[in-house]
């Protein structure tokens, strides 16, 4: 089987706007307050503690929304939509480069989620999940779960980054290039060192994509994504936005705060990526979160007497090792690990039936039956491993790694993190040939209370990035409060009713919860 069939699913997602233009989350309330963790010497805001930020406004103008509830749920295999849920898709035009260095416009995709009872005079919350996955898919997964209270109070509008999801797609690689990159050259490298082989694959993919994108190679980074959000604000004709960035989308939100902070009424960072950290540090934090999430999944799987046996984690380690040794046919270790990460980082509320279904698929794979795992493989590839994700991820790859460091991590991480470590170390070379991104510029002045959410086992960015973010915001004068969910999954607000309540309260009146609030799993 050729796993590049995922490209077809990705292209289907990209035309969704133009054609249609469980167990639920934990709802246990906050029961404890942890001591806040700040990185560095944070500067206390001079704004009064009870100062109320400007309220986000209801749009005075609207986009050409078209109902896309059924096609979205069908495409993403989300089952039947909740009664009264409305998903609407639209698009808007944004300049390729507001500085004028590259002429022309992009078509950006957006999706609005609401209920038929959502007040029409409620200001929307704008959502970006960055380059981790399509923002519209993140929102659809949230809407499929137990988020009715949040969406019944106000609409959420997800904005896909350039080249991702339903925005104008980037298709810059050939199928063979895409497959080699996805497999980390496992089946073509022969006796070559895996890191060296991945360096070659990454270089060839980089050349192909830079040539395809010319002369717009430099406009797929987080600062340009922030410009797209500003263009959306102008089209909605509002002075102040409520903005949430999840995962690497937090970098987009921070860039918006730096460039257009005067137009923010609320700022929420859910599971932010560490700032001021090189590619090696970011990758290791992510791997730690993935391993923690896998442990939690295995514990739940075991409690359900799932088909992976008495020790599901050991069974998964064995599968990854067998894939790496070429014992699972044409399913590489990298593709299997991507599939595991895609499932663990799903924005849906994963019920017991989904856990056992995935376990059954893994068990069948171990017996040589690839059929049940195939939909998960294709879904992960289309959701988190497209050409557009590659371009965006590489465009934001600050302080990239080197082959020597990656080879060292291949050994140490492979031992410390037996499922995700080796693949993550080799993957450091995927963007090694991309022109190095300039260091991320953070806000230097932000008189706004900022809500920061996170989980104790986040499989997309890890959990240790929050202190670097709150420290940087404190240095800019912002007040922050962190809410930590003691569960696994990404993003936090999609899985925790407790975190959703803190979010709803903050959106309503701008008041922050107690810093270090803990939400039980």
Short description:
The protein is an alpha/beta fold and 521 residues long.
- The CATH architecture category of the largest domain equals 3-Layer(aba) Sandwich
Number of helices: 19
The CATH homologous superfamily of the largest domain is named Alpha/Beta hydrolase fold, catalytic domain
* CATH C-level label of the largest domain: Alpha Beta
Shape: globular
> Main sheet?
11 strands, mixed
Relative helix content: 40-55%
Strand order of the main beta sheet, please? 1-11-10-9-8-7-5-6-4-3-2
Spans of at least 5 consecutive residues with low confidence: 1-15, 17-25, 30-49
Number of domains as seen in the coordinates: 2
Strand residue percentage: 5-15%
Our measurement of the CA-to-CA distance between the termini, rounded to an integer number of angstroms, reads 39 Å
The count of strands amounts to 11
What pattern of helices and strands is seen along the backbone?
HHEEHEEEHHEHHHEHEHHHHHHHHEHEHE
